[in-house]
Amino acid sequence: MTETDCESRQALRELIALLQEVDERYLGDEWSAPMFGDLPDGYRSVASLLEGALYLTFELDAERPFFRRIVTRSRKMLGDNADAIYYTAPIRSDRAYRVTGNLAGAVYLSFTIERESGEGGYSTETAGVLNDDRIDFSAGGDFEVFFGGASRDRNWLELVEGASEIIVRCYFEDPTPTAADVTRMVPLTIEPVEPVGPPAPWDDASVAAGWRRVAAFVRSRTLDQPKPGERVQPTWVSTTPNVFPKPELPGTFAFAAADAAYSMAPYLLAPDEALVITGRWPKCRFASVALWTRYLQTYDYAHRSAGLNRASTQLEPDGSFRMVLAPSDPGVPNWIDTEGKPFGMVFWRFFLPEDDVETPQAMVVKLADLR
């Protein structure tokens, strides 16, 4: 095989060219990347996307899937969370799969089906959810569920046409961030109901296909995304700084948990300002607030207070909460560290809410006044 007819080399060079295009366009003026002074966040997000693409898609095989962890404390993308462990496995809509596992202390567990995300693409919609309300567990937390194949009353989810990926959400409500613990895991296995033989040995074509899946993953999450101001935002996303919209279920929004109410807004603070947020945690399975960069990466929850859940929040005597976003410790409870960033995203999650969720209220104050 010569250099000119090596498809693997050509595919790798396509990825290298793509990364150059991401540098020049996505992290350039075309996507307003330098506008907020957070350009290093953009380059860091590309590093996580590239790592995720290599780990999740290069050797993707929906015929012989296994669960991979989507994000970690150092690989952050697509709106990760300090209190959750996420897994993914590729699937085919014309197959049936058996999944076994254990809750491992999670307060919420769900499986969602994404469509058209195979070969590194971006999901077009969330096309089904199986949460722990519809799963039978042993006394020790063991479970067995099925996807596709013959219909079952419980422990089963249909695979619609175009189903390409199972995402597993395992949420923990502890005083410290679960995702910061590198030893924490949830045991999960997935296997086809009908056994398949071993795959063909790797060759030039399959290696090239792996590189192109990596490129598709990176492109679909950068250059294929709408430019700032062009995306039609869902109703639970605010474009007004420091003002939260009413929390709502996301419906079929891609890569979202269909049974969680969301609310997101940007914060905008001067160096001498803080954002005081008041509200009440609702009756639900899990609730938290987290800070993200505009590239949907959590702040440093392993070493800083980058968010809160109900177990880590100190409540007021009347049961409400008062949180403070600030660049330095104001000496009051429930401080969330902005790391000195004047701009970022505040994201709320409320899983399986029993009633309407009260909208958090925010007010900008002088940091000195808090102290």
Structure, briefly:
The protein has helices spanning 7-26, 39-57, 204-220, 367-370, and strands at 68-69, 84-90, 97-102, 108-115, 126-131, 142-147, 156-157, 163-171, 188-192, 260-268, 273-279, 286-292, 307-309, 321-326, 335-337, 343-351, 361-366.
Would you kindly provide a written description of the structure presented here, covering whatever features stand out?
- The strands form 4 sheets. The chain has a 5-stranded antiparallel β-sheet, with no helix packed on it. Strands 7-6-3-9 form a 4-stranded mixed β-sheet, with no helix packed on it.
- The protein folds into 2 domains: 7-220, Jelly Rolls, CATH 2.60.120.1600; 260-370, Jelly Rolls, CATH 2.60.120.
- The termini are far apart.
- The relative contact order is 0.16.
- The chain is of the alpha+beta class and 371 residues long.
- It has helices at residues 7-26, 39-57, 204-220, 367-370, and strands spanning 68-69, 84-90, 97-102, 108-115, 126-131, 142-147, 156-157, 163-171, 188-192, 260-268, 273-279, 286-292, 307-309, 321-326, 335-337, 343-351, 361-366.
- Helix content is 16%, strand content 27%.
Which labels suit this protein?
Jelly Rolls, single chain, 4-stranded mixed β-sheet, 5-stranded antiparallel β-sheet, alpha+beta, 17 strands, globular, 27% strand, 371 residues, 2 domains
Please render the helix and strand layout as text:
Blueprint lengths: L6 H20 L12 H19 L10 E2 L14 E7 L6 E6 L5 E8 L10 E6 L10 E6 L8 E2 L5 E9 L16 E5 L11 H17 L39 E9 L4 E7 L6 E7 L14 E3 L11 E6 L8 E3 L5 E9 L9 E6 H4 L1
Parallel strand pairs: 6-7, 14-15
Antiparallel strand pairs: 1-2, 2-8, 3-6, 3-9, 4-5, 4-8, 10-16, 11-14, 11-17, 12-13, 12-16
Helix pairs in contact: 1-3, 2-3
